[in-house]
Amino acid sequence: PPSPAAPDTPGSPQPEQPSEAYARQLLLEEWRPPSGTLELPPRLTWRLLFLRRPLYRNLLRSPNPEGINIYEPAPPTGPTQQPLETLGNFHGWYIRTEKLQNDRSWTVKQQCVDLLAEGLWEELLDDEQPDITIMDWYEDSRLDACVYELHVWLLAADRHTVIAQHHVAPHTSGRGPPGCWLQVSHVFRQYGPGVRFVHFLHKTKNRREPGGLRRTRVTNSSVSVQFRE
Predict the structure, then answer these.
(1) DSSP string spanning 78-126?
(2) Do 44 and 146 sit in the same domain of this protein?
(3) How many folded domains does the chain comprise?
(4) Which listed residue, of 23, 40, 53, 81, carries a Cα 20 to 30 Å from 178's Cα?
(5) pLDDT by residue (tens digit) across 89-117?
(6) Per-residue confidence at 47, pLDDT binned at 50, 70, 90?
(7) Residue 2 domain flag
(8) Which residues contact 122 (CB under 8 A, 6 or more apart)?
Protein backbone atom coordinates (compact mmCIF):
# COMPACT_ATOMS: atom_id res chain seq x y z
CA PRO A 1 0.00 0.00 0.00
CA PRO A 2 1.18 3.55 -0.57
CA SER A 3 2.96 5.33 2.25
CA PRO A 4 0.72 7.66 4.22
CA ALA A 5 1.05 11.31 3.36
CA ALA A 6 2.99 13.45 5.78
CA PRO A 7 0.72 15.50 7.99
CA ASP A 8 0.31 19.13 7.02
CA THR A 9 2.55 21.45 8.98
CA PRO A 10 0.46 24.27 10.33
CA GLY A 11 1.71 27.64 9.14
CA SER A 12 2.52 30.53 11.38
CA PRO A 13 -0.65 32.21 12.58
CA GLN A 14 -1.35 35.40 10.68
CA PRO A 15 -2.23 38.50 12.69
CA GLU A 16 -5.88 39.37 12.36
CA GLN A 17 -6.47 42.22 9.93
CA PRO A 18 -8.81 45.04 10.94
CA SER A 19 -12.10 45.63 9.19
CA GLU A 20 -12.33 48.37 6.57
CA ALA A 21 -14.06 50.72 9.02
CA TYR A 22 -11.60 50.04 11.82
CA ALA A 23 -8.58 50.42 9.50
CA ARG A 24 -9.97 53.80 8.41
CA GLN A 25 -10.41 54.89 12.01
CA LEU A 26 -6.91 53.80 13.00
CA LEU A 27 -5.18 55.48 10.06
CA LEU A 28 -7.09 58.75 10.35
CA GLU A 29 -6.19 58.92 14.04
CA GLU A 30 -2.55 58.15 13.23
CA TRP A 31 -2.16 60.40 10.17
CA ARG A 32 -4.41 63.29 11.27
CA PRO A 33 -4.98 64.88 7.85
CA PRO A 34 -5.74 68.63 7.98
CA SER A 35 -9.37 68.16 6.92
CA GLY A 36 -9.88 65.32 9.40
CA THR A 37 -10.71 62.82 6.66
CA LEU A 38 -9.45 61.48 3.33
CA GLU A 39 -11.33 60.38 0.24
CA LEU A 40 -9.87 57.26 -1.34
CA PRO A 41 -10.10 56.46 -5.06
CA PRO A 42 -12.15 53.33 -5.88
CA ARG A 43 -9.03 51.22 -6.46
CA LEU A 44 -7.81 51.70 -2.87
CA THR A 45 -9.07 50.35 0.44
CA TRP A 46 -8.27 51.36 3.99
CA ARG A 47 -7.24 47.78 4.77
CA LEU A 48 -4.65 47.90 1.98
CA LEU A 49 -3.32 51.23 3.26
CA PHE A 50 -3.16 49.78 6.76
CA LEU A 51 -0.88 47.03 5.45
CA ARG A 52 1.33 49.27 3.29
CA ARG A 53 1.60 52.30 5.60
CA PRO A 54 2.83 54.71 2.89
CA LEU A 55 2.84 57.75 5.20
CA TYR A 56 5.27 58.35 8.08
CA ARG A 57 7.56 55.60 6.80
CA ASN A 58 11.08 55.73 5.39
CA LEU A 59 10.69 55.01 1.68
CA LEU A 60 14.40 54.51 0.95
CA ARG A 61 15.81 51.01 0.66
CA SER A 62 18.79 50.11 2.87
CA PRO A 63 18.88 53.50 4.63
CA ASN A 64 21.73 52.40 6.93
CA PRO A 65 23.85 50.12 4.74
CA GLU A 66 26.81 49.80 7.13
CA GLY A 67 24.76 49.44 10.31
CA ILE A 68 26.26 52.54 11.94
CA ASN A 69 24.65 54.06 15.04
CA ILE A 70 24.34 57.86 14.91
CA TYR A 71 24.06 58.00 18.70
CA GLU A 72 27.73 57.04 19.00
CA PRO A 73 30.80 58.60 17.35
CA ALA A 74 31.62 57.11 13.97
CA PRO A 75 33.66 53.96 14.65
CA PRO A 76 37.33 54.47 13.76
CA THR A 77 38.36 53.01 10.45
CA GLY A 78 41.52 53.17 8.40
CA PRO A 79 41.98 53.26 4.65
CA THR A 80 40.67 50.19 2.85
CA GLN A 81 41.13 48.48 -0.49
CA GLN A 82 37.68 46.84 -0.30
CA PRO A 83 34.91 48.01 -2.63
CA LEU A 84 32.14 49.86 -0.82
CA GLU A 85 29.55 47.26 -1.86
CA THR A 86 31.34 44.61 0.24
CA LEU A 87 31.13 46.67 3.45
CA GLY A 88 27.38 46.40 4.03
CA ASN A 89 23.93 45.93 2.53
CA PHE A 90 23.59 48.47 -0.28
CA HIS A 91 20.52 46.90 -1.88
CA GLY A 92 18.55 49.55 -3.77
CA TRP A 93 21.45 52.00 -4.18
CA TYR A 94 23.11 52.84 -7.49
CA ILE A 95 26.77 53.58 -6.66
CA ARG A 96 29.50 55.23 -8.72
CA THR A 97 32.78 57.07 -8.12
CA GLU A 98 33.54 60.60 -9.30
CA LYS A 99 37.28 61.30 -9.41
CA LEU A 100 38.68 64.66 -8.30
CA GLN A 101 42.14 66.22 -8.06
CA ASN A 102 44.68 65.78 -5.24
CA ASP A 103 43.84 62.13 -4.48
CA ARG A 104 40.23 63.03 -3.68
CA SER A 105 37.05 61.47 -5.03
CA TRP A 106 33.31 61.41 -4.43
CA THR A 107 31.32 58.27 -3.71
CA VAL A 108 27.93 58.96 -5.29
CA LYS A 109 24.94 56.92 -4.08
CA GLN A 110 21.43 57.43 -5.38
CA GLN A 111 18.02 55.86 -5.67
CA CYS A 112 14.69 56.90 -7.11
CA VAL A 113 11.56 56.38 -4.99
CA ASP A 114 8.36 55.55 -6.88
CA LEU A 115 5.71 57.16 -4.67
CA LEU A 116 2.77 55.34 -6.26
CA ALA A 117 4.51 51.97 -5.99
CA GLU A 118 5.04 52.67 -2.28
CA GLY A 119 1.30 53.00 -1.74
CA LEU A 120 0.60 56.73 -2.18
CA TRP A 121 -1.99 57.85 -4.72
CA GLU A 122 -2.32 60.64 -7.28
CA GLU A 123 -5.18 62.51 -5.62
CA LEU A 124 -3.32 62.66 -2.31
CA LEU A 125 -0.10 63.94 -3.89
CA ASP A 126 -1.83 66.46 -6.18
CA ASP A 127 -4.61 67.80 -3.94
CA GLU A 128 -3.33 67.41 -0.38
CA GLN A 129 0.38 67.80 -1.26
CA PRO A 130 1.66 66.33 2.02
CA ASP A 131 5.15 67.24 3.17
CA ILE A 132 8.02 65.27 1.67
CA THR A 133 10.81 65.22 4.26
CA ILE A 134 14.45 64.46 3.48
CA MET A 135 16.95 63.64 6.24
CA ASP A 136 20.53 62.40 6.24
CA TRP A 137 23.54 62.10 8.56
CA TYR A 138 27.18 62.29 7.49
CA GLU A 139 30.49 61.92 9.28
CA ASP A 140 32.62 64.98 10.03
CA SER A 141 35.62 63.18 8.54
CA ARG A 142 37.81 66.29 8.01
CA LEU A 143 39.02 64.85 4.71
CA ASP A 144 38.32 68.18 3.02
CA ALA A 145 36.51 71.47 3.63
CA CYS A 146 33.37 69.96 2.08
CA VAL A 147 32.93 66.21 2.55
CA TYR A 148 29.22 65.83 1.75
CA GLU A 149 26.61 66.96 -0.77
CA LEU A 150 22.87 66.29 -0.97
CA HIS A 151 20.78 66.61 -4.14
CA VAL A 152 17.06 65.80 -4.28
CA TRP A 153 14.61 66.21 -7.15
CA LEU A 154 10.83 65.79 -7.12
CA LEU A 155 9.98 64.37 -10.53
CA ALA A 156 6.86 63.99 -12.65
CA ALA A 157 5.61 60.68 -14.05
CA ASP A 158 8.13 60.78 -16.93
CA ARG A 159 10.99 60.71 -14.36
CA HIS A 160 12.60 63.68 -16.14
CA THR A 161 10.44 66.75 -15.53
CA VAL A 162 11.64 68.47 -12.34
CA ILE A 163 8.84 69.93 -10.21
CA ALA A 164 10.97 70.92 -7.20
CA GLN A 165 14.57 70.41 -6.12
CA HIS A 166 16.96 70.95 -3.24
CA HIS A 167 20.77 71.03 -3.20
CA VAL A 168 23.19 71.56 -0.32
CA ALA A 169 26.97 71.24 0.10
CA PRO A 170 27.73 72.17 3.72
CA HIS A 171 31.21 73.15 4.91
CA THR A 172 32.14 71.91 8.35
CA SER A 173 33.47 74.35 10.94
CA GLY A 174 36.42 72.17 11.94
CA ARG A 175 35.63 72.70 15.61
CA GLY A 176 35.18 69.86 18.05
CA PRO A 177 36.41 66.28 17.75
CA PRO A 178 36.35 64.69 14.29
CA GLY A 179 34.06 61.76 13.64
CA CYS A 180 30.85 63.25 15.03
CA TRP A 181 27.64 62.98 13.01
CA LEU A 182 26.15 66.02 11.27
CA GLN A 183 22.52 66.15 10.14
CA VAL A 184 21.06 67.68 7.02
CA SER A 185 17.33 67.92 6.35
CA HIS A 186 14.83 69.59 4.08
CA VAL A 187 11.03 69.61 3.82
CA PHE A 188 9.29 70.07 0.46
CA ARG A 189 5.98 71.90 0.94
CA GLN A 190 3.36 73.16 -1.54
CA TYR A 191 5.39 71.77 -4.41
CA GLY A 192 2.48 71.67 -6.86
CA PRO A 193 0.67 68.80 -8.59
CA GLY A 194 2.30 66.03 -10.58
CA VAL A 195 5.00 64.68 -8.25
CA ARG A 196 5.39 60.91 -8.69
CA PHE A 197 9.07 60.20 -7.94
CA VAL A 198 11.71 61.39 -5.47
CA HIS A 199 15.28 61.14 -6.77
CA PHE A 200 17.65 61.10 -3.77
CA LEU A 201 21.41 61.49 -4.32
CA HIS A 202 24.20 62.11 -1.84
CA LYS A 203 27.95 62.37 -2.31
CA THR A 204 30.65 61.66 0.28
CA LYS A 205 34.32 62.61 -0.01
CA ASN A 206 37.18 60.08 -0.09
CA ARG A 207 40.95 60.54 0.12
CA ARG A 208 43.45 58.15 -1.45
CA GLU A 209 46.23 57.14 0.99
CA PRO A 210 49.06 54.58 0.78
CA GLY A 211 46.90 51.93 2.46
CA GLY A 212 43.84 52.50 0.30
CA LEU A 213 40.80 54.75 0.37
CA ARG A 214 39.77 56.66 3.49
CA ARG A 215 36.04 57.37 3.29
CA THR A 216 33.47 59.74 4.72
CA ARG A 217 30.57 57.66 5.97
CA VAL A 218 26.87 58.41 5.83
CA THR A 219 23.91 56.77 7.54
CA ASN A 220 20.20 56.94 8.43
CA SER A 221 19.18 58.45 5.10
CA SER A 222 15.42 58.91 4.79
CA VAL A 223 12.63 60.06 2.51
CA SER A 224 9.19 60.19 4.12
CA VAL A 225 5.77 61.67 3.44
CA GLN A 226 3.56 63.15 6.16
CA PHE A 227 0.88 65.74 6.78
CA ARG A 228 1.84 69.14 8.15
CA GLU A 229 1.22 69.40 11.87
Answers:
(1) --B-S-GGGGS--TT-EEEEEE-STTEEEEEEEEEEETTTTT--HHIII
(2) no
(3) 2
(4) 81
(5) 999 999 999 999 999 999 999 999 999 99
(6) very high
(7) no
(8) 41, 116, 196
